[in-house]
Amino acid sequence: MTELSTTAASEETQLAYDGGADVADYFALLKPRVMSLVVFTAFVGLMVAPGSIHPVIGFTALLCIAVGAGAAGCLNMWYDADIDAIMTRTQKRPIPAGKVTRGEALGFGLTLSVFSVVTLGLTVNVLSAALLAFTIFFYAVVYTMWLKRSTAQNIVIGGAAGAFPPVIGWAAKTGGLDIEPILLFLIIFFWTPPHFWALALARAGEYARAGVPMLPVIAGDRVTRLQILLYTILLAPLGMTPFWFGRAGWIYGATAIVGGIVMLYLAWCVWRPRADAPPHRDGYRLFGFSILYLFALFAALLVEQGARAFAL
Q: Are residues 59 and 149 in the same domain?
């Protein structure tokens, strides 16, 4: 039944095409909200890396990372157009809304992918370009085409794609890797499940209708809430590792401690919701704060880097 509804939705998507795409529609294909977080974490990775980089080269690196992230988002929308047409929160995306065809989105995404990787490789270095190429491939192929529709652990494994930007930023500046970008990768990797599942709890019905085996659909609310708590228990001390390894100062350490405590409290509330609480209130609170938590950690690194530069 799900297969039939998905196919029907896909056909309806194509029939609804009205040819009225504008620049805003193509920009929407790039998932700009996701892209902004990608650029920010990549920028922090680039700034905290040792050494120096010419401002033009640094800007080019960030631009290529942004375009590459947008390309991955565009390819995701191309492949998931059938699912997007079913789910309420995605029905207004350019393809389901009939503004852009799937073929146009595919061509746009592939063009941006090649452009971003080749430009990064020619103007910055090969390692950062290879990491960007792998990230696009991982998100568009491994996560979107395989994991998302085949396993309830899709967001856990697929979260690696969103964790690579600070590593790419670091590699763009240094041409190599170190323990610090790996720690930043791990923080984002373990942050992704509680962040995403907190929202997925409220969207379980939509995922079920679309045939996507998200954890709340396959394992139920109780298991999902427990998994959110367990991942947050791992995340909170992991967020402290840059400080413990001497790669961050007290501003970061204090931010990680306070943010980790709040994350643990909100995850506990998700695990043990009050009987009189509105449905999914705690999940939405955790989802919202998790964005602030990640932003605050990376912003603290940036502030400390600026303070060190000013002191010199």
A: yes
